[in-house]
Each structure stands twice: as structure tokens, then as C-alpha cells.
Design goal:
Low-confidence stretches: none
Distance between the termini: 55 Å
Number of helices: 14
Shape: globular
Number of strands: 0
Largest sheet: none
Helix content: 55-70%
Structural class: mainly alpha
Mean pLDDT: 95
Amino acid sequence: MRYHEFLEELKGFADEGYKAFHKKLLKNDAVNVIGVRIPQLRCLAKKYKSEVETLLTFPDEYYEVTFVKLTVVALLPYEKFIQYVDGCVALIDNWATCDCFAPKCIKKHKDEFLFYIYSYLDNESEFYQRFALTTLLHFYVEEKYLQQIFSILQEDVNTDLYYVHMAAAWLLAEMLVKFYNDTVEFLKSDLTDNFLDKKTHNKAIQKACESYRLSDEQKTYLKGLKR
């Protein structure tokens, strides 16, 4: 398979209306969009999952090309996936690509992959940090990692970066749903210690209150914890 052939195949699935909608949603004028819907991109990734080496040589001039690359890598077994993950994270330049890059192979290798999460949190890049947080959200919101995630949110994220701030709030909201009492205590301690910035603290509560998985009573209490 050659790049121009792959590009022509992608363009055959283009939807101009969706292109305009998705381009606006990405909020990044530097990202070129063909206008292919995500289910079709995932089908293409499955089609070409045996051609990962070829795909990775293609230029990243379109959102869809990068998306297919990362989706193919995400389909690999952990031992192969880990060979490519650093290069894949380096390609992420928007929230949509980031949030859809959720390799299921991490599920059975969570302890091993923590090394990578911390290394991405140490990177100053907004989307390195967001990927670390969305990976925690996808795979680590369980009792074993609860205190570790609280520590990361206290010490290792730069929520001055918009997409990091939003991912941190999203992660906290999910923790409120799954571990309400523990996460409430975390937010209560933040009221005095202010280790989160105000906007992230309040956004987490807002997002949790938008969930149907919390009771009205819980939501009322959470609103009283806003800063």
C-alpha cells in the first residue's frame, strides 16, 4: 500500500458536512481534516492492522491519517504496542485524537504502563499530559490506584494548560461517580490546601453533577463544595 492510495481511499469516505462540523469541534486550525467519520476510520484501522510499519511511514498531514495510525497501534498486543507508544503520543495535537487513543492492551499491564504515564506527566506538552490523564480515566479508576491518582492530581499535572485542566476535571468527575466518598474527601481537603486550581476543582464538580449516576442528594452536597 502506498500513501497516495491510502489517501484516495480516505477521501472516498469524505463527508463535507461532517468535515465542517468536526473541524470546528477540534478547535485547532492547524489540523487538516478530510471529513471521515470515526466508525469508518476504525474499520480502516482493522483492515490495515497488519500494515503498521507501512502506515507509520505516512506523513501526518491529515487528522484521519494520524487517527488510523494510532488506532492500528492500539490494536497491537502489549509487547508490540509498547514499541510504538512514545512515537504515537508525540503525534497527538488535538483532544479528539488523544481521547480516542485508548489501547485496550493496557488493561492487563496497568502496573507496567505506569512508568509511561509518569514519563508523559513529566513532559511539558499539553497532549502528553492529557494522554496520561485520559489513560488513567480509561483504565485505572479502581480502588488499587485511587490514592496514586489523587497524588498525581495534587503534584504532577499542569492545569494551566486548558486540555490538561479539562482532562483532570473529567478524571475527578469519574472518580466521584465510582468512589464518591473518597473523592469527596479529596475535594474537601482541596478547599483548605488549594492544590488544585479553582477552575479544575469546580469543573470536576460540574461534570459530576451532569452525570445520571449520582443521586440528587449527592449532587446537592457536591455543589456546596465549590470554591
